[in-house]
């Protein structure tokens, strides 16, 4: 598994942060003017942005929970069975629902620069899957990504909070039909997505990075021990260090201890030395 570079971390973190404002200038981050597609949820809110440029990488950015309804979906702990390789596995119903909901304003038109033959093949594929006048969120994602994949691009997926869970589920679905198309998955503050059988069958552990920060309680959700499991490599940012794949109980205990001792820790000399730069501005 290749380590996640600092510039890669910063790039995905910035894009996840920019997922929340209504709009931003994506060309400032290396994407072409026309290399942008937005997907909305059932209420017409943008929840996914697909960005690409001259490079071989397409970045799919998933927005996290925005409303009370979104947060309630985090509590929908009902397991849902999904195809997984040559069998089935169980995932969090709420996060899977976010991908299966019908968009209020579906847009399944591929980018105009894509080869015409690919567009025809895509349209035929969408016709085979279309069961209603509207399309699911995942069908829209796939309709945009397939032509880009066939033009030689690789897909990176990133998301914050429940958006991270969506990124994992989309990567898993996409892998079933396009196994060589996925470059990496990077999530921030992500809750666990599936049961143990999903963790066992998840095919992208070596390309998935799960970033946790200090005592981020969402990263310990859903709060049912041994029921939901995380996938990929965990990088825990804590106390000025990066810890890799530290066990959940150990991470939780260290977080709580750090929080309890925080007032005392400010008495140590290293805290005073760290703040020496303030005197240059005094």
From TrEMBL:
SUPFAM superfamilies per the UniProt record, alphabetical: alpha/beta-Hydrolases (SSF53474)
Domain Fungal lipase-type: 59-224
InterPro entries per UniProt: AB_hydrolase_fold, Fungal_lipase-type, Sec_MonoDiacylglyc_Lipase
Pfam families the record matches: Lipase_3
GO biological process, one term: lipid metabolic process
Protein's UniProt name: DUF2974 domain-containing protein
């Amino acid at each position: 598994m290749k380590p996640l570079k600092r510039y890669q971390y910063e790039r995905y973190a910035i894009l996840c942060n920019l997922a929340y404002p209504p709009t931003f200038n994506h060309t400032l981050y290396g994407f072409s003017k026309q290399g942008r597609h937005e997907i909305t949820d059932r209420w017409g809110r943008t929840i996914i942005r697909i960005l690409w440029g001259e490079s071989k990488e397409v970045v799919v950015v998933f927005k996290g929970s925005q409303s009370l309804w979104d947060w309630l979906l985090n509590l929908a702990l009902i397991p849902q069975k999904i195809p997984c390789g040559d069998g089935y596995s169980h995932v969090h119903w709420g996060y899977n629902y976010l991908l299966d909901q019908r968009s209020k304003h579906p847009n399944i038109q591929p980018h105009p620069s894509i080869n015409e033959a690919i567009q025809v093949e895509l349209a035929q594929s969408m016709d085979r899957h279309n069961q209603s006048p509207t399309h699911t969120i995942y069908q829209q994602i796939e309709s945009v990504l397939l032509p880009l994949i066939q033009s030689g691009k690789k897909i990176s997926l990133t998301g914050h909070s429940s958006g991270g869970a969506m990124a994992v589920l989309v990567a898993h679905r996409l892998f079933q039909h396009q196994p060589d198309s996925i470059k990496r998955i990077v999530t921030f503050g992500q809750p666990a997505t599936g049961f143990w059988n999903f963790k066992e069958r998840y095919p992208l552990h070596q390309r998935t990075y799960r970033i946790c920060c200090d005592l981020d309680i969402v990263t310990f959700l859903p709060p049912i021990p041994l029921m939901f499991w995380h996938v990929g490599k965990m990088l825990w940012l804590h106390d000025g260090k990066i810890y890799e794949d530290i066990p959940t109980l150990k991470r939780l205990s260290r977080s709580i201890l750090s929080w309890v001792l925080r007032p005392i820790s400010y008495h140590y000399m290293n805290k005073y030395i760290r703040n020496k730069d303030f005197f240059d501005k005094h």
